[in-house]
Design goal:
By secondary structure, this protein is an alpha/beta fold. It is built from 10 helices and 11 strands.
């Protein structure tokens, strides 16, 4: 069993990005600029955005954090999105999800200029992905495919089962995995899939992205499978300093001995999601230069 080290891979990619940024700046151009809009004080969102700011510092990007309280109105948030759309010194920005219930996430996503949508959530970018056109790819699917490539894990003709059909991970990932550059045969499984255990157990590559801690057990994984765990659910752990632990969708200790490759949680897919955001921002900056 080989542990797929997302942190180490992300660090290698960050060094590659930093080298490109140095070349950009030495040629007299400005550094790439990424902004994050954070609404409220959700613990997971706070941590994630703090990591993104740190990532920007590491690679030489300029970063901006825009904060709103939970009671911000949808109109106020839309006005800020429009302002960021028109900021010529800004290459890309994200609005951190989830948002308060009184704000339509889809309305906010659609208001973002597709050319600055470095999260890859805008319908235009999703549509371009489906058609195989150049696009900003959703960060988590982008990161997963990059991990598979960098670990030289064979994908062509392999049976790939994705458990979860979210617009952020499952759906876009199914498209990426079936593209000619990857060539996997993809099944998207979900809560209504019959004989889910059997479907999962037939996968050469099993990707768990349903947000249910330790849902994938050993009986759902075939010997020698590649297992990618996208889940990051906070569970109470009073014995820890933070008071919580991150749990993946895979029962790691039980499943790992059966795998050829497996990602841990944390330290697997998460760092790759963040570095994919940097890659998208660098791409946007090159277009703007």
């Amino acid at each position: 069993m080989i542990l797929i080290d997302g942190k180490k891979t992300a660090d290698e990619i960050k060094k590659e990005i930093a080298a490109e940024v140095k070349l950009i700046i030495s040629s007299g151009k400005r550094a790439p600029h990424l902004a994050a809009v954070l609404v409220g004080h959700d613990g997971g969102s706070e941590t994630y955005v703090a990591f993104k700011i740190k990532d920007c510092e590491e690679v030489g990007f300029r970063s901006t954090l825009v904060r709103f309280e939970n009671d911000v109105t949808e109109a106020e948030l839309l006005a800020k999105v429009e302002e960021l759309n028109n900021d010529k010194d800004l290459d890309g920005f994200i609005v951190q999800l989830p948002l308060p219930k009184h704000i339509s996430e889809q309305k906010i996503i659609e208001a973002i200029d597709a050319r600055k949508d470095v999260d890859g959530f805008h319908p235009e970018n999703v549509g371009r992905l489906v058609l195989g056109m150049p696009a900003f790819l959703s960060a988590t699917p982008f990161g997963i495919v990059e991990l598979l490539k960098r670990y030289k894990i064979p994908t062509s003709g392999k049976n790939c089962v994705i458990v979860g059909r979210s617009n952020i991970v499952g759906r876009p990932l199914s498209i990426l995995m079936s593209q000619k550059s990857v060539n996997a045969t993809v099944t998207v499984a979900h809560s209504q899939t019959k004989n889910l255990d059997k479907v999962c157990a037939e996968a050469d590559i099993l990707i768990a992205a349903l947000g249910s801690p330790e849902f994938i057990k050993a009986n759902m994984v075939k010997e020698g499978a590649v297992v990618i765990d996208v889940g990051t659910t906070r569970v109470n752990a009073p014995e820890t300093k933070s008071g919580f632990r991150l749990k993946g969708d895979v029962k790691f200790d039980e499943v790992a001995p059966k795998c050829s490759y497996i990602t841990p949680v944390p330290g697997g897919v998460g760092p790759m999601t963040r570095v994919s955001l940097l890659l998208n921002t660098l791409k946007a900056a090159k277009k703007n230069s």
